[in-house]
Specification:
By secondary structure, this protein is an alpha+beta fold. The protein is built from four helices and eleven strands. It is globular, with a radius of gyration of 18 Å.
């Protein structure tokens, strides 16, 4: 197979959190917000202060805007990069390889320390044939997720939404090939979360 090369790039100085206990001093802390204004499977990222766990009150640069509620939100326009022979596809930058060099897909993301709250019900269920196993669900609960810079096509605020990615857990589950019907159920769940 002539497969392309997939790369996930994330910065450790960013810290996406879902509750205040995950806040870290000195990092760029962003609170994940999911509400009636966000599309399922997506979130807004509210900027927090770096010196103490409080909401930020000053816009640091053009990557942030103040919304109608007064929150400082991170926009998803961080992929304003240009590489030769590249094209942007959602959160991915596709770079076409030259002769003898494989194509690359690069995704830029921010890490989130905890499993998305919107998908926490999945951790409690066990499907047909005891799949996913307790070990897989424990792995999911202890594995971080990511947010990637792309908004939903049906969003009212696509420039502010970030897609929640559980790619590490999805990869683990994909390697468990023996449970294809359960895998299809999970794929359907992921699609519902994202859409």
């Amino acid at each position: 197979l002539d497969s392309d090369y997939d790369t996930l790039i994330f910065k450790h100085d960013y810290n996406v959190i879902q509750n205040w206990s995950e806040w870290e001093q000195g990092k760029i802390n962003l609170m994940m917000i999911q509400n009636e204004d966000t599309t399922p499977g997506y979130c807004f990222l509210q900027l927090l202060r770096q010196d103490e766990p409080l909401h930020a009150t000053v816009i640091p640069d053009e990557d942030y805007i103040t919304d109608r509620c007064g929150r400082i939100l991170h926009n998803n326009k961080v992929l304003n990069l240009s590489y030769p022979n590249s094209e942007q596809h959602g959160p991915s930058l596709a770079i076409q390889g030259q002769q003898g060099i494989v194509d690359q897909d690069i995704v830029f993301a921010y890490p989130c320390k905890s499993w998305p709250q919107s998908a926490s019900g999945w951790l409690q269920r066990q499907g047909i044939g005891r799949w996913p196993t307790q070990e897989m669900r424990s792995y999911a609960a202890s594995t971080s997720c990511f947010v990637v810079p792309t908004g939903s096509k049906v969003s009212v605020h696509p420039e502010l939404e970030w897609r929640i990615s559980t790619c590490l857990v999805e990869r683990c589950l994909m390697r468990s090939e023996e449970h294809t019907s359960e895998l299809q159920s999970l794929t359907n769940l992921v699609c519902r979360i994202r859409h």
